[in-house]
Amino acid sequence: MWYPGHIKKAKGKIKTYLKTVQGILELVDARAPYASRAYEYEDLFKNKERIILFNKIDIADEKNLQFWEKYYKEKGYKVLKTSLKKVSIRSFLTKIVYKSFPKKFSELRVMVAGIPNVGKSTLINSIKGKKALRVGNTPGVTRGLQWISINNQFMLLDTPGILYSEIYNKKMLYKLILIGSLKPEKDEKEFAIEYGFNFFKEKYPEIIKNALKSDNIPEEYPEFLELFAKRRNFITSGNNYDIERAMNTFLKELSDGKYGKVVYDYPEDYDVLK
């Protein structure tokens, strides 16, 4: 399991800084609204006003988001939805996020939290400028905590990506790999793609068709990877299909939402929801 030491340190800093904020803005990937809260949110953020922001709704199947929106609202959360790369973030923060938190002081201070690659850096970069942070599908590139001024009444505290120290639910693990929030080990990469392939065959066959640019869906995932490599002309020096490159490209493009809209989370995937 990939679990950098800086994530453990970040959790300690979050607890230290918690007393300086009035609320928490938790970003989740709308494609995995439950899996992308894979951290100790009750322990970290208890007794704080929290808003859950479903990000990347432009690449999520909104029909299957309805359960999760209702689920979180019934838990007492406020829920917002957006695609941070598609909106004016400053306007979204001032007109929607700011107004969604109760005002107890003259200045609102909110902590921004979430797992890697859910959009925290996109949000912060839009305020500080493009060169403020390194952004991309490399999980955990933001390392420190920093205050960002939105206006004279609104401050954000940016935090690094956080995760459980261990993820025992394999479906959750694979989903985090598929949305680009977790850097997989080699065997995890293969298992995640196999899980994704079988999931897409059942729920979203158009994802496979779009990846292969073909209406024919292979029976098994090794055949899918071979066809994917063939379609992209990924050939090794030994004139074999470059399956490793095929896996990496598929995961990257999948996490970017290039093959279509999807929601990976279903309530039956988690014992606690049954």
Automatic annotation (TrEMBL):
Q: Which residues form the signal peptide?
A: none
UniProt-listed PROSITE patterns: G_CP
What keywords are assigned to this protein? Cytoplasm, GTP-binding, Nucleotide-binding
Pfam families per UniProt: MMR_HSR1
Per the annotation, which location comes first and is thus the protein's main one?
cytoplasm
SUPFAM superfamilies in UniProt: P-loop containing nucleoside triphosphate hydrolases (SSF52540)
Q: Where is the CP-type G domain?
A: 8-165
Localization in the cell? Cytoplasm
Superkingdom of source: Bacteria
Q: Is Nucleotide-binding one of the keywords UniProt gives this record?
A: yes
Kindly give the InterPro entries that the UniProt entry links to this protein.
G_CP_dom (IPR030378), GTP-bd (IPR006073), GTP-bd_ortho_bundle_sf (IPR023179), GTP-bd_ribosome_bgen (IPR019991), GTPase_MTG1 (IPR016478), P-loop_NTPase (IPR027417)
Q: What does this protein do?
A: Required for a late step of 50S ribosomal subunit assembly. Has GTPase activity.
Q: Which family does it belong to?
A: Belongs to the TRAFAC class YlqF/YawG GTPase family. MTG1 subfamily.
PANTHER family given in the database record: MITOCHONDRIAL RIBOSOME-ASSOCIATED GTPASE 1
What is the protein name given in its UniProt record?
Answer: Ribosome biogenesis GTPase A
**In which organism is this protein found?**
Marinitoga aeolica
